[in-house]
Amino acid sequence: MDHHGRPAARRRDLLPIFKGITKAANPALLEATQQYPVKVYADPNNCTFQFDPVGKATFRKSCDVAKSFLSKKGIPYTNEVLPAGQIAYLTVGTEKIEAFEGSALSAADFKTQSAAFAAKMNAATRPTLPRPICRASTRRCSCSSSSSSSST
Q1: Which domains, from first to last, does the chain contain?
Q2: What pTM, to 2 d.p., does this model score?
């Protein structure tokens, strides 16, 4: 119940609203998430709540490494359960990307592993959307299905 005594909206009840907003505001994002759904496979007990309003937290568990990357990039995902003790991984469409367990790593090793993981994730989540064509004279861009950019 909410503070007015009405039944609280459930997450599953709000999902169609968010999909409708996404379709209206960013149809390319909706299309990409339908063609290449992102799923995080992890032990739910190994995941920390991803809340870092000042950007200073370091999430080192494998589940947190995966979800932190997605959260920072604004990439929507769904959760899938893995048995306890397994290292988290993600799928982007049919591509599987292993996360890493960083809890026992030194700061330097964690930074190196994070960079390697980010490179894999950036390659897997790089949009294959039409590139904008910008006109130098007006500084306006428009999308085109052409994969090469041209300027006039």
Answers
A1: 1-33 (no CATH), 36-143 (3.40.30)
A2: 0.64
